[in-house]
Design goal:
This protein has 125 residues and is mainly α. Helix content is 58%, strand content 0%.
C-alpha cells in the first residue's frame, strides 16, 4: 500500500471513530435520549461513521486481508482448484492456456462475452 493510501485510510478510521464517539457521548450526556432531536443526531453520527469506515474496509477486502465469513472462495483465489479445472485433451494431457481475448482497446473481454463468441464460433447443424 502506498504511503498516501495509508494516511487516507488512517484518517478515515480516525474520523469514523470520532463519529462513533460523538454518538456515544450524545447518548450518555443527553437528558432524554429518546427524543426526536437526540435520535436524529445519533443516527447522523452513526451514518457518517459508516461512510468513513467503508473505504478502509473495502480496501482491506480488495487486498484480501479482510476475511469474509460464509463466502466461498473462487477458483482464482485457491491455486489447488485452478489445476483441477483446466481443460484436458482426450489423452488426459492438459491443454496449454489460451491467450486472453482482448477488445479493441487492449482490455480483457468479460467471461459472458467470451462465452457468446465461443458459441458463435461453433458450427451450425
Amino acid at each position: 500500500m502506498s504511503r498516501e493510501a495509508k494516511i487516507l485510510n488512517l484518517l478515515c478510521v480516525l474520523a469514523a471513530l470520532a463519529f462513533v464517539g460523538l454518538a456515544v457521548l450524545n447518548a450518555l450526556l443527553s437528558y432524554s435520549f429518546i427524543s426526536t432531536d437526540n435520535l436524529f443526531v445519533t443516527m447522523v453520527c452513526l451514518v457518517m461513521a459508516l461512510m468513513f469506515a467503508i473505504n478502509p474496509l473495502l480496501y482491506l477486502k480488495d487486498e484480501g486481508r479482510l476475511p469474509i465469513p460464509f463466502l466461498k472462495r473462487s477458483s482464482k483465489e485457491s491455486p489447488g482448484n485452478a489445476l483441477k479445472s483446466q481443460p484436458t485433451q482426450p489423452g488426459g494431457r492438459a491443454l496449454p492456456p489460451s491467450p486472453p481475448m482482448l477488445d479493441t482497446k487492449g482490455r480483457e473481454v468479460p467471461p459472458d462475452v467470451k462465452s457468446m463468441v465461443n458459441r458463435m464460433k461453433e458450427p451450425q447443424p
